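Hi U.,

Before I forget, here's the chain from the pilot set. I'm dumping it here mostly so it's searchable later in email.
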Amino acid sequence: MNESRLEPCGHRLLVKMDKVERQTESGIVLPEDTADREEMSGTVATVVEVGKSCWADQHVSGQWAKPGDRVMIAKFAGQLWKKNGIKYRVISDFDVVGVIHE
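Structure:
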């Protein structure tokens, strides 16, 4: 079991979102609602866990992403899950736009 204690079902993935800076480079502190919107519109995350039937209905060979991979996802995708102060999202396999190779 992963640290979030949440197992994604079916064609869903659990991803850990990159942190959003609460202060701009010029020193302006973002209001709470603005920072929350920025977090939900984030598009880069790390795959934590993959549901058992991810990509099964898309007629592709193998998984596109596995736990530990960095991925780009659709803006505002998925449901928010918070555990121990860490924010995760449960997203559909269709919301994975690409795998980031760094």
